[in-house]
């Protein structure tokens, strides 16, 4: 089955939409339908929710992966458009289908989305369940979820004011990103660690990390407003 991850540019959903449409035009059968579920997702990221739902409406199939992804993307569209309650049963359905079919990566994604629409008191446990599924999977695409899930766990702790636990999660997420070797994601991970350090009052360590990030971005001719904002807070 087609793995759609390589076509995504989450910084440019319009470009991603066109990439998925072009790939779908070249594909057949269930592969084509999987790619079209990602067209729907890209439309949702552009806030074109009705168009996204219309794409999914045309994807009736007996294929388990397509069915799971249709439910998953339907839920994402509903959540993004402001209706998390309506989204929840679609995420539940996506997990159920994916679990029965042995589609670990889709299942982890569905459980991760369940956490985002859950009662705040339940988000940590649900995200930890997604992480447990990810780290014990034989599917590399499922295991690759670990850094994102650890970051989400860290944010749950941060939202509760526990920046010590948040820092631990962010450090584990950073280690995972470093193993994967995607330097843009590594920089995000370092920023998260520095952000937690500032909130713990460890401003010297945080400032050192943010200055290192700024120097790397300058050398690459790039900017990041989040880094600049943290530097402003740390040097005021």
From TrEMBL:
Pfam families reported in the protein's UniProt record: TPR_12
SUPFAM superfamilies linked to this entry: TPR-like
Keyword Chloroplast applies: no
PROSITE patterns tied to this protein: TPR
InterPro entries: TPR-like_helical_dom_sf (IPR011990), TPR_rpt (IPR019734)
TPR repeats: 147-180
Keyword annotations of the record: TPR repeat
Name of the protein in its database record: Tetratricopeptide repeat protein
Organism, as annotated: Nocardioides conyzicola
